[in-house]
Design brief:
- The chain is mainly α and 172 residues long.
- It folds into two domains: 97 residues, Rna Polymerase Sigma Factor, Chain: A (Orthogonal Bundle), CATH 1.10.1740; 73 residues, Winged helix-like DNA-binding domain superfamily/Winged helix DNA-binding domain (Arc Repressor Mutant, subunit A, Orthogonal Bundle), CATH 1.10.10.10.
- It contains seven helices and no strands.
- The longest helix is centred in the middle third of the chain and has 32 residues.
- It is globular.
- The mean pLDDT is 90.
Length: 172
């Protein structure tokens, strides 16, 4: 059986045919932007196609909304990251600002890092950000998160690895 005719692809096709219009309306109401709603709708179904396994959901609309909400959250988080970056650039003297090309590359790197850090557990991400952005030491992070200092070291190493992969790819 070809991948295009697999039960998995047929299920996604059925969900698409039966619920895409409804999902588009929900997303358009949530974003107030038709183009963003279209992009997020497509991304929702692409995400389903990329799954290794997919069972028919009992509540298809709730299932699709859960995926779309995650994508919407990612979109807004990345938009906030971009705005924070642009605000920091605006604070630099004009002579020190990177070229538009360099700004674009830096922003793409930041988005890639953000995407990779989002894969970490919430505690690992918090430990990494407390250390790298807030300058907290391992003991203070361990106390805040209620974990051991050795666990904090592991979390920070996980965060560093994700940054490395975002910028340079998987180590060989």
């Amino acid at each position: 059986m070809s991948p295009a005719h697999s039960p998995h692809a047929e299920l996604v096709g059925s969900l698409y045919r039966d619920h895409r219009g409804w999902l588009m309306a929900w997303l358009q109401h949530s974003t107030a932007c038709r183009q963003r709603a279209e992009d997020l709708s497509q991304d929702t179904f692409v995400r389903l196609l990329g799954r290794d396994e997919l069972n028919a959901p009992r509540e298809p609309r709730a299932f699709l909304v859960a995926i779309a909400k995650g994508l919407l959250f990612d979109h807004y988080r990345r938009a906030a990251l971009e705005q924070a970056y642009l605000a920091e650039l605006a604070r630099l003297p004009e002579a020190e600002q990177p070229s538009p090309e360099a700004q674009h590359l830096i922003l793409e790197d930041l988005k890639a890092i953000d995407h990779r850090l989002a894969r970490l557990s919430s505690k690992a991400r918090a430990a990494f950000l407390y250390n790298r952005l807030d300058g907290l030491g391992h003991a203070e992070i361990a106390e805040r998160l209620g974990v051991s200092v050795s666990r904090v070291r592991q979390y920070i190493a996980q965060g560093l690895r994700q940054c490395y992969v975002a910028l340079y790819g998987e180590p060989t």
